[in-house]
Amino acid sequence: xxxxxxxxxxxxxxxxxxxxxxxxxxxxxxxxxxxxxxxxxxxxxxxxxxxxxxxxxxxxxxxxxxxxxxxxxxxxxxxxxxxxxxxxxxxxxxxxxxxxxxxxxxxxxxxxxxxxxxxxxxxxxxxxxxxxxxxxxxxxxxxxxxxxxxxxxxxxxxxxxxxxxxxxxxxxxxxxxxxxxxxxxxxxxxxxxxxxxxxxxxxxxx
Length: 206
Hints:
Elements: E1 3-6, H1 14-25, E2 30-33, E3 38-42, H2 47-57, E4 66-68, H3 75-78, H4 83-90, E5 97-102, E6 118-122, H5 127-136, E7 140-144, H6 157-164, E8 170-173, E9 183-186, E10 193-196
Parallel strand pairs: 1-8, 2-8, 4-6, 5-9
Antiparallel strand pairs: 2-3, 3-7, 4-7, 5-6, 9-10
């Protein structure tokens, strides 16, 4: 049975954020709010937790996983990005975007797309997600909470609780959110290629 924390959307309770990070360090799978619906997260180094997320979402290891980052300073550690694209990201983050880059050696191999060797990078505009990252002190392995057969991200924490309380360790309730997933922009070939239009405005990358 998962834990269920009611979070303040503007000033997340530090005590609950600390508990959430402890759960992540212990191998837990957490549901947390972002600026584009809810997402599933776990520690980047935890293979069992990643396997559980794949099972919940019914996705294969070929899926493009994402590292949720605090800011762009973490970007160059995990992604290969040139100066022009870095400036483009700087002007449009934080926000409801997932950016796909070739990964560096710092990214665990199991998180990279096996064919393209790419990784998604995300800097969310959500106080609860940012507090979680600040306390964690490193990126969080993340994927949008899209349940099998659905096109929209989960947005109602009570429904998430009904569906997943036996499959995840913690649900952070940040209220009702938008249903659109992130806009995905692929930079892996050196230029911006919009893969999916979602919550984030695609105009800057067209």
